[in-house]
Design brief:
Helix content is about 45%, strand content about 25%. It has about 80 residues and is α+β, with helices and mostly antiparallel strands.
Length: about 80
């Protein structure tokens, strides 16, 4: 899942070298934290959060295939 989020984020931003994705396990859930440069935050969130929702939907679909619960946090 970490690689999926990283590939999507790097394709969206202007500073792909500043994309940092960390993955941790907490209470049976996988938490993925995405950090981007402040200037790229708008590109990752999108208008009314549409891009962020789309990223979460894609990750959720991939996770359901593996029967996992994944939470994506964007910072």
């Amino acid at each position: 899942m970490k690689e999926l989020v990283e590939v999507i984020a790097r394709a969206l931003v202007e500073n792909p070298e500043e994309v940092v994705v960390t993955e941790t396990e907490k209470e049976g859930e996988t938490h993925i934290e995405l950090k981007v440069a402040p200037s790229d935050m708008g590109k990752v969130i999108g208008k009314q959060g549409r891009i962020a929702k789309a990223i979460r939907s894609v990750v959720k679909a991939a996770a359901s295939k593996e029967e996992k619960k994944v939470v994506v946090d964007i910072q």
